[in-house]
Design brief:
This protein has 472 residues and is mostly helical. The chain is 55% helix and 3% strand. α6 packs antiparallel against α12. The longest helix has 34 residues.
Length: 472
């Protein structure tokens, strides 16, 4: 090869390498810009800026919450996971550890049940489905394992729960939480059952989110912002994402649900199970940037992804304001576990967190909601409450125990935040909830749900920064 030819080859290789690097960098930067293009400036219907919340959460609130929520008071959540779905029969895939064959779809029935099929149907089924059957059975087994609850609790801890119960029942009770005295209520260790990818997907989760968005969210008079579904691996699938053309109260309701939905999706992307290389081994948990982009990249979500992320900040602001308003009440709560030194240390940590929250200068102002005493406004408030109650009942239709656990906890936490916002001495930024009285009280379960639900939102905002770095 002569010098001229060698030079041409060299320049060709160099040009392709340069273009390849430029393309990769441009693509990465473009994806980052697309996913996070709206995550700046004011949060809709609030004066607070996203950048301020990022700084507050990631530098001050998240580290403290992460430590507090590992304490005994907050790690054990009392919940009834055995309530039947009041709206339809459960048809989830094999997401439960003890799921029965009749819970699965037809094409997922384990091979051993074919003994119940007549011989000619059995032969036909085996001939046509044997290859797919092995795949479906493996997927079903994986979902059972991922969706199963770890109910490991020591006998010593169970004995402690009795003293907690006696302490709680000695307090004046003015608000009763659903299931609190049911025989089916049990404590679940949240640290042993983290919210992450469980394999729960298909028709069952789609029906859940469809019921929430289409039947229990307010809708605009005109079709604004209705978009594609969120994705196939969420605990729930979506319908409309962001809607304009609604009054403030309806927008608040919609953004609360959308923000919660976004938070759940981020957790699944942040704690995603990657299969082991070569198909051998148990796989590993890690951040899934591709999954995150599929849910929030505007190019893949009909331009709705960034607004979904922004709705997360709105939901965070609502629960942040609730904690600020309830700070005087929570500072005298006691947080009893029977260990005086542990309880005092926990109270000090909570007081420190509440002081930081209270010092934030730009809280959501709940006095802007439900102004006036007109018949229309009273009816709207009643509808607001009824829609939210329906959503709490829909959580009992979730087919995966881990998904149901975290769904019920986060909905209860959000409901507790709303209860706080519309209680107290008045409405607005100067109002507080100061003490137990005949009009207001929080149970231990509500407090545990309130802090853990806010912790989930805090974790999601912290995870956004991780994905932002991965995408650049």
């Amino acid at each position: 090869m002569n010098l001229h030819s060698s030079l041409c080859v060299f320049l060709f290789v160099l040009l392709n390498f340069t273009l390849g690097v430029w393309h990769e960098q441009t693509w990465s930067g473009d994806v980052a810009d697309r996913c996070f293009c709206k995550l700046q400036g004011e949060v809709d219907d609030c004066s607070c800026k996203v950048e301020s919340l990022d700084s507050l959460n990631n530098n001050k609130i998240y580290p403290r919450l992460k430590s507090l929520l590992s304490r005994n008071y907050f790690r054990y959540f009392k919940v009834n996971l055995k309530k039947k779905c009041p709206f339809w029969s459960d048809d989830s895939r094999c997401a439960l550890k003890d799921c029965h064959v009749n819970v699965c779809q037809k094409d997922e029935v384990p091979i051993k049940t074919i003994e119940n099929v007549e011989n000619h149907e059995k032969r036909k089924y085996l001939n046509e489905k044997s290859g797919q059957k092995e795949v479906d059975e493996a997927q079903c087994a994986e979902q059972r394992e991922l969706g199963a609850l770890d109910k490991t609790i020591s006998q010593e801890k169970i004995a402690e729960f009795q003293s907690w119960k006696e302490y709680d029942e000695a307090l004046p009770m003015f608000c009763d939480v659903d299931d609190e005295h049911s025989n089916d209520v049990e404590y679940v260790d949240l640290l042993l059952n983290p919210e992450r990818y469980t394999g729960y997907k298909g028709l069952s989760p789609r029906r859940i989110w469809r019921s929430i968005y289409e039947e229990n969210c307010f809708k605009p008079e005109k079709n604004y912002g209705y978009g594609p579904e969120y994705g196939s691996d969420s605990s729930l699938e979506s319908s409309p994402l962001f809607s304009r053309g609604m009054c403030l109260e309806k927008r608040v309701f919609f953004r609360l649900i959308s923000g919660l939905h976004t938070s759940i999706n981020i957790h699944l992307c942040d704690q995603y199970l990657f299969p082991a290389k070569g198909g051998f081994g148990s796989g590993h948990w890690d951040h899934n940037l591709e999954e995150f982009q599929s849910r929030f990249d505007p190019a893949l979500t009909n331009n709705q992804g960034p607004q979904r992320l922004k709705n997360l900040y709105f939901t965070y602001l609502i629960e942040l304001r609730a904690l600020a308003k309830a700070a005087p009440y929570l500072k005298q709560e006691g947080f009893y576990t029977g260990d005086a030194e542990e309880d005092a240390d926990l109270q000090q940590g909570i007081n420190n967190l509440l002081d930081i929250i209270k010092s934030f200068p730009d809280h959501f102002d709940e006095s802007q909601l439900f102004k006036g005493n007109s018949k229309e406004m009273k009816q709207l408030k009643a509808e607001f409450v009824q829609h939210f109650r329906n959503i709490t009942r829909i959580m009992d239709c979730v087919g995966c125990d881990k998904c149901k656990l975290w769904g019920k906890l986060q909905i209860l936490g959000m409901g507790t935040a709303l209860k706080i916002l519309f209680s107290g001495d008045s409405m607005g930024l100067q109002s507080t909830v100061k003490s137990m009285n005949k009009d207001f009280q929080l149970t231990r379960t509500e407090i545990v749900a309130l802090f853990n639900a806010f912790g989930r939102l805090s974790k999601s905002i912290h995870a956004i920064e991780t994905f932002r770095k991965l995408a650049t």
